[in-house]
């Protein structure tokens, strides 16, 4: 190391000794500062590790919840699809029954309708002649056509020949 300005090399040995000791003290203090910084870094690193472990535990718990909820959602989805399929099947059956009833009803209307309804259409806009008993000629006794503002309509009006329904 160089001699400080104003000091002579030939000077007393105690000055050099003091200078060497001062230099050793400075170096040891710098080493202590470096070690202290390392300790601070390690403490900060350990603190970060603890926080990371806590967050990882929270994450694992949340992932477990997501898995449970996903399974529950899948079960509910399957139950919904099964119920929907059942409802669709019932709707299809009811629709088929309705179509069969309409076909059956139309067949009976055609069988019971008087001849002049085929000429004028099933529901003409003008009233069809009705006998005194309230029946059309050549019709079933349980069907009665009542004329109204919207035209004549088929309606079950009697239980038996000539008796009003109660």
Which features does this protein show?
two-stranded antiparallel sheet, mainly alpha, 64% helix, 166 residues, rod-shaped, single chain
Helix content: 55-70%
Number of helices: 2
Radius of gyration: 53 Å
Element-level helix/strand string: HHEEEE
Structural class: mainly alpha
DSSP E strands, number? 4
Which runs of at least 5 residues are low in confidence (pLDDT < 50)? 140-145, 156-160
| Lateral arrangement of strands in the main beta sheet | 1-2
Give a short account of the largest sheet: 2 strands, antiparallel
How far from one another are the termini?
131 Å
Shape: rod-shaped
Could you tell me the strand content as a percent range?
5-15%
Mean pLDDT: 77
Question: If you had to describe this structure to a student in words, what would you say it looks like?
Answer:
This protein has 166 residues and is mainly α. It is built from two helices and four strands. Strands 1-2 form a two-stranded antiparallel ribbon.
